[in-house]
Specification:
Radius of gyration: 53 Å
Largest sheet: none
Helix content: over 70%
Strand content: under 5%
Structural class: mainly alpha
Order of helices and strands: HH
Shape: rod-shaped
Number of helices: 2
Length: 151
Amino acid sequence: MVQAALTGLDTWMSKKWREKQRRWRQQRADWHAEDIQFRFEEILLREEEQDFFQAQLRWREEDMKQRKVGNSRYLWNRFSEQNRRDVEEKSEQLRSISWLSGLVTSFTMTSPIEFAFVSQSISIAKLTSYAIFAAIVVSTRFVIFLLNDFD
């Protein structure tokens, strides 16, 4: 009877031990499957992160290109505006030079009339020299204005 009880106890303990080992093996298999699933998810997340970083790098490169284009447009607009202002300034200077030359020319041409020179009292040589010097004054004045304004 003791032998039967001990055999029964041994059988019962062996059965419990095997059940415990099965549960442990099943738990280990579950953990292994879960670990494989986590590793697979980790690989996917790393790939997504790498794709995100690559997309961010591409975005940054395109942003830098756009900034270069924007800077180029800004520089182009700035230089074109500066050139436009220079052209307007030079055209205004030419207008003022032509106006001053016209004024000097009109004073030069009207001076014989204002001083009441009669054409018969002035010799042709004096009149020719006066015309030549008047033209020299006007052209010299014009050249001086051009040289001063375009330096």
